[in-house]
From TrEMBL, chain B:
Molecular function, one GO term: 2 iron, 2 sulfur cluster binding
Gene3D superfamilies per the UniProt record, alphabetical: Glutaredoxin, NADH-quinone oxidoreductase subunit E
Note accompanying the cofactor annotation: Binds 1 [2Fe-2S] cluster.
Keywords annotated in UniProt: 2Fe-2S, Iron, Iron-sulfur, Metal-binding, NAD, Translocase
Source organism superkingdom: Bacteria
Protein name (record): NAD(P)H-dependent oxidoreductase subunit E
Classification via InterPro entries: NuoE-like (IPR002023), NuoE_dom (IPR042128), NuoE_N (IPR041921), Thioredoxin-like_sf (IPR036249)
UniProt-annotated binding residues for [2Fe-2S] cluster: 85, 90, 126, 130
Amino acid sequence: MGIKLLLDKAHVEGIRSYEVYRREGGYRSVEKALKELGPEAIVEEVKKSGLRGRGGAGFPTGMKWSFIAKPEGVPRHLVCNADESEPGTFKDRYLMEFLPHLLIEGLIVSSYALGSNATYIYIRGEYAWIPDILEEAIAEAKANGWLGKNILGTGFDLEIYVQRGAGAYICGEETALIESLEGKRGNPRIKPPFPAVKGLWDRPTVVNNVETLAAVVPIINMGGEEYAKIGVGKSTGTKLISACGNINKPGVFEIDMTISVEEFIYSDEYCGGIRNGKRLKACIPGGSSVPILPANKLFKTAKGETRYMNYESLADGGFASGTMMGSGGFIVLDEDQSVVKHTYTLARFYRHESCGQCSPCREGTGWMEKILKRILEGKGKMSDIDLLWDIQRKIEGNTICPLGDAAAWPVAAAIRHFRDEFEWYVNNPELCLT
Amino acid sequence: MIRFSDDKLAKVQEIIARYPEGKQKSALLPVLHLAQESFGNWLDVPVMDYVASLLSLEPIEVYEVATFYSMYNLKPVGKYLFEVCQTGPCMVSGSDDIIAYIGEKLGIKPGETTADGLFTLKTVECLGACGYAPMMQLGKHFREHLTKEKVDAIIAECRSNAAANN
Ligand SMILES: NC(=O)C1=CN([C@@H]2O[C@H](COP(=O)(O)OP(=O)(O)OC[C@H]3O[C@@H](n4cnc5c(N)ncnc54)[C@H](O)[C@@H]3O)[C@@H](O)[C@H]2O)C=CC1
Ligand SMILES: Cc1cc2nc3c(=O)[nH]c(=O)nc-3n(C[C@H](O)[C@H](O)[C@H](O)COP(=O)(O)O)c2cc1C
Ligand code: SF4
Ligand code: FES
């Protein structure tokens, strides 16, 4: 059994309730943080832990926190990004649904460290039943003195509010999220300025993912140095992976980033192998926007070494033969699946979710969907494959936010590794389903 | 006249109080959710105008937002809205068959509503339940690991609920 820091108590009966959570040692990190450490020391512990943002970009959390601007007299905010909409990703939902107090505990410590007196959880609108769970946990925490005025007699005041989105993937992008929280359309802003300088209502704001903020709890409890000993290199601590697709045991797993990709797929502790005894064809290990890899590149790095489930190893080989950790949305395709069709659904997804501000993204995603559909229906030409390649290249790097890249990369990787499959569709129109 | 009940108006005030003075525009998304729930599960123009007046916004500010987000219905929908996910992970787990089956059972295509106004079928993109696919959203909750038998049961459940409420 690997080390569990976040989900160790997930199966304790009644852990959703304050009483059980507290009995199991909950809210200790708040006592330690507020009474013994103080804001600067908390940021130091998080820096030492090596924790990297679990929303997908992997930016060092302690460093981001130390960047928050502190202009005189201007309030600061912490915003929890619970928009989770990257296809393949459903780990934050699991944390919020089963361990709501863990998130609230992490939010209290993090808000104190950053000096936020009003912290917002922005949750995707479709997770419509989860705000009730979070609000109940907030009410319980407040009733027990962990929230509200003068927490633990330290003079620190904090309220936590839950805000539902209303169906827009782009609102997971932090500046679009801020726009949405201000009651506007979710159009991303140009960065810099980063939210840490100018965020919600132009105030300094830190936006962090649900899992990142939950990880602050074990970091404070065990100390940043101890946390950093878990994992390997710059992939410290544990990571939640949500696994789906053609595997025997889809679900959310906590890993310590030292296990191999092969073990993750085939071990009974994790995915339990490919469903119906089929063979593995391909995998998208970090959510829909990261490159797909064929089975023969998945288990070994470019150097022929074992590939592990961590940031560096997954990315080894760059785009030529590597992929990314991303949000930890692990999608597995068996030998019967069509990579062309899967890629088409992703292209349709990104077209649907483009906010439309930048023409390369708005037009490019539409074209990619159209051409992929044509190929899938047996109406494509060989030149369409090259056209697709050109379009994705023109989007990448030419947009305000990374949704453009996120739409381009899956198409690029599919063509790079599965060109023969695209050609098969062009050469066998009579066999294509319309 | 379009007007929230008193307890909903109190809720609106509670939402506005979450934000700093003068930032009541931040309440727009939650108040639109509340309006949609309260006034027939869609946002008619007079409803949006009412929300604008409550939050001291120009109506256009409300329309802009309502048209951006996919969960706000700008047209009437059936009493039971089946929103079935069709993105990659659900697709490789059989969502196409489920969508086709629901369509067949109800005699409608995605985007359509049954003549009795009971059911609307809609295809949607990833809802964050990829490990429990195929799935759909029905009201506040997800229905996961869908099979034809489960679909039959859900339709029957909706029909009997509708009959009981009439
Ligand atoms: N979890 C999910 O559902 C999804 C996750 N993603 C992930 O999002 C990632 C892209 O996110 P971005 O926020 O655009 O990445 P980014 O690299 O621009 O930023 C990452 C974080 O670091 C902060 N940051 C970076 N440089 C900074 C500086 N100099 N000063 C202060 N703060 C700084 C940013 O504000 C942000 O919070 C992708 O890699 C993708 O994996 C994308 C879609 C969905
Ligand atoms: C299109 C797009 C969608 C995103 N969606 C999410 C999301 O749903 N959840 C999330 O935590 N981060 C998402 N991000 C990343 C955020 O912009 C930001 O990097 C993250 O919330 C920072 O938190 P972290 O440092 O704790 O990872 C998205 C980024 C992009 C470009
Ligand atoms: S890249 Fe796409 S989603 Fe991002 S700002 Fe531009 S148009 Fe909008
Ligand atoms: S792909 Fe259907 S819920 Fe994610």
